[in-house]
Design a protein that fits this description.
By secondary structure, the chain is an alpha+beta fold. The protein has helices at 12-20, 25-33, 39-45, 51-63, 84-88, 90-103, 106-109, 115-125, 179-186, 192-197, 207-211, 213-216; strands spanning 67-71, 78-82, 136-141, 150-156, 159-163, 173-177, 201-205. The protein has a five-stranded mixed sheet with strand order 5-4-3-6-7. A two-stranded antiparallel sheet has the order 1-2. Strand 4 and strand 5 (159-163) form a beta hairpin.
Length: 231
């Protein structure tokens, strides 16, 4: 029997699945909806995806008219932008996130912990509005990790940078946390206050930054969705 590429069906669901249901494709789109347009930015949001596979998925999305590659004058020479077809997929991809937040058990949600990915996600969702109108430097320390333990967020006039080495500025707030607890806060499964009270999170430094941390901390875009099954 001749093997048919894809599902071999004319149903629009099958046709859409042939575009979206290859490994990593939906996550590539998730990163683009979060604002990543450069190849290296996309890689930071998917650190376990190989550069070769990312390149292939971007080519696939270009072929299907979901993404276009545009030459730019800046570093790197090009960036990836969503076409009208790509933008039209936003509600589908975000809908998957809403479903996952509502229905996937908490233990499964917190199974794959990654401090670098967590800090990258927090960095792009930081809300500087409740923060002081000056440069603020927050150091995060995950003492239980065997590898990379320290990260710095530098927020200055609305710009947010994530530093993997000491930026050399005076630290305004020290955050010592268990990675699982910090990830649960980011996902909206618990709160800063609850984890401080439980002893999983320790804050030292600027009282205003400590008090407003829940407000300025960059949470998951799905954090407001409540679980609909027993955790």
């Amino acid at each position: 029997m001749k093997q048919v590429a894809g599902y071999g069906q004319f149903c629009p669901v099958a046709l859409a699945a042939e575009v979206l249901c290859t490994r990593w494709t939906v996550l590539v789109l998730r990163e683009m909806y979060a604002g990543s347009t450069r190849f290296n930015e996309l890689r930071r949001g998917m650190p376990l995806m190989s550069p070769t596979l990312l390149s292939q998925r971007l080519k696939d999305l270009e072929k299907f008219g979901v993404v276009e590659r545009v030459k730019t004058a800046g570093p790197g020479g090009s960036e990836y932008r969503l076409t009208a077809a790509g933008q039209d997929l936003r509600s589908i991809v975000m809908g998957l996130g809403v479903w996952g937040q509502r229905w996937v058990k908490t233990q499964s949600s917190l199974k794959n912990l990654d401090p670098s990915l967590l800090m990258w996600d927090m960095r792009r969702n930081i809300n500087p509005t409740p923060m002081p109108q000056r440069r603020s430097v927050i150091q995060f320390l995950y003492p239980s990790l065997a590898g990379k333990q320290r990260y710095w967020l530098v927020i200055d006039r609305g710009a947010v940078d994530l530093c993997l080495i000491d930026p050399g500025f005076e630290v305004d707030l020290y955050v010592v946390a268990e990675l699982r607890a910090m990830t649960a806060i980011w996902m909206g499964l618990t709160t800063v206050r609850a984890e401080v009270q439980a002893g999983h999170l320790k804050l030292t430094g600027d009282p205003n930054l400590k008090r407003s941390m829940q407000a300025w901390l960059g949470l998951s875009p799905f954090a407001k969705e409540k679980k609909r099954i027993a955790a």
